[in-house]
Each structure stands twice: as C-alpha cells, then as structure tokens.
Amino acid sequence: MLKPPRDSARLWLLIFIAFVVALMFWFFCQEALAAEPENQQDYPVTSPEELAEGVTYLLDRDNAPTTDPRRAITQEIGQANLAAAQSTSTDPWLLTSMEFHESSFQLSACGKKGERGLLQVHGMALKHCQKLGLDPIADTDQSALCGASWLVQMQVQCSVLVADWRACRDYLKKGNDRAHKGACNGALAAYLSGSCQASDIVAKRVSVRLRTRDKMLLEVKMPINQ
What we know:
Elements: H1 5-34, H2 48-61, H3 74-88, H4 92-103, H5 124-131, H6 140-158, H7 165-169, H8 187-193, H9 200-221
Helix pairs in contact: 2-3, 2-4, 2-9, 3-4, 3-6, 4-9, 5-6, 6-8, 8-9
C-alpha cells in the first residue's frame, strides 16, 4: 500500500535537514582545524604517521616522482618534527610547512647566505643551534630541533608567533592590502627576515606558510575525498 504523498514530502524534508546539518558540521570542523593554535594544548592530536602523511601530501603537490629519495624519509621527518615540537612547545604542522618552503625537505640543502638544514638556519640562528650542540645538517632530529628552538627564541623576542593568524593566512586573498600586512608581524616574520615587523615580501612568505600548514592539516585530518 502506497504511503500518502504528505509522508513522502516529510521524509525528504528530514533528509534535507540532515544534509544541511552534516554540511554545517563539516565546515565547523574545517574552521576548528585551521584555527590559530594559541598553545601546545590547542594543537590537533598528532602522530609521526600523520606528519609523515603531511610530508607525502606536500611532495605529491610538488609533483615529486615516486623514486624521489625524500619519499623514503617521510616517517623520519614526521618523527623528528613531532619530537622537536614537543620539546619546544611549537606546532609540528607549522614546522613541516616551513621545511617544505625552506628546503623542500632536503637535509643537505644550503642557501646562498649559508642557510643550512631542513629549516635553513644561518647567522645568529646557526650560532644559537651550535651553542645547543645542534648541527642542522647532521640528521633530521637535530635539524628540526635547531629550527624549532630558534623559532621559540623569535617568539620570545616578538611576543607572538603571528599577530593575527587568520588575517595573515588570508593576506594574499585580500589583494595584498597594506592594512592587513601587520597581521603577519611576529616570530615567523622574524625567523624569515630577522625583524618582527613584516615587510610586504615577508608578509607574503608568512601567509604562504600558514596556508600550506592549514591545507596540509585538513588533508590529513579530514580528507575531502573520503
């Protein structure tokens, strides 16, 4: 016996409401995962395996071939970044993003100004690491800890990691509006330039690293294709 049309319409209404609620929950989770980490307790629960997935995601995005030697050390990098983050109370996802942009996960990378290691430390940063007995090109553990410890030093100097995480992350979307440049001031800007005040170029670099961090985190924690 067929059900009255009214019952069918009611059923479709309930399905529609459930769909809208599920969609709103999905967007809420995205915002929560991408939110600014205020302290170590606010960082998403992370494992070396998840960070290794993040490294793989970035290598895939960079079109690295399957034979690329960096793919063989994703787990090693994940373990090193998590250990460094836990030792210094920093964000392991941000460290991973920084390594991608600084050295493309190449431990032996050396820049024009003498930058060394995964996080390309040089000058005062390199001296800081050497005082701690860390060699940025010795192994992934020392390299990650070296960069993370210097980032902490910059945060002490600048009082904040990033002045306004969300505004800085969206800096490029705002047409490089100078009114939003100050949102990128802080330790990450100092890490890249030596100054807590971000210039236009540095603000762009900080913004890119934040966006990469958030995209990687969302891909690993909540893959859209699943």
